[in-house]
Amino acid sequence: MAQADRHFAEARRQMVLTQLRPNKVIDEQLIAAMAALPREQFVPKAYRGVAYMDEDVAVAPGRYLMEPMVLARLLQEAEIQSGEVALVVGSGTGYEVGVLARLCSTVIGLEADAVLTQQASQTLQALGIDNTAIVEGALKEGLAKQGPFNLILLAGAVPEIPAALLAQLADGGRLVGVIRPAGAPIGQAVLVKRSGDLFPQRVLFDAGTPLLPGFERPAGFVF
Fold first, then answer.
1. Could you say which DSSP state residue 195 is in?
2. What is the pTM of this model?
3. What is the C-alpha separation between 212 and 92, in angstroms, rounded?
């Protein structure tokens, strides 16, 4: 193993020991997935040295890789089953897709940025992760034609959850993400579970996750 590979392997181990386990992450399959996936491959080369820090890491203008602890706690609350199909909204460079690929049967990433879409596809392919697909499209619209989904992960904060995304959940399906109204200093991680035509929502914890672009409300008329 090259020195750089050893360095990142140790960084992954420390991420598990100092960020995940002390913060109520106990799902061993989830921990194994995050301990195995090379997070440094999903950030620009200039930022690989901070890929495992306990913060959101910038990957493009206005776009971030979710803080490891926040991602892990969201996915743990989703109680993922191995045969499920997941959608990642705002898949960015593909890291969250890569984690879910080790937990689900199929994962689709939805990304509005063409450059990030291509980058994510190339990185996942290079890592031999073949149960995923990255699709370019408007984030708030979801992918109704590919649904319904057992799990939807919002890979960034949104001011509110669009009804179009909730409608793409299968019965019993879950949506996890962070709701952060525009201008709010912090957001709230939530779990939504579909039961027929009902979508009860449970607040999980506070999170400072940056907002995803594309979810802004249209400007109203000013009189």
1. B
2. 0.94
3. 10
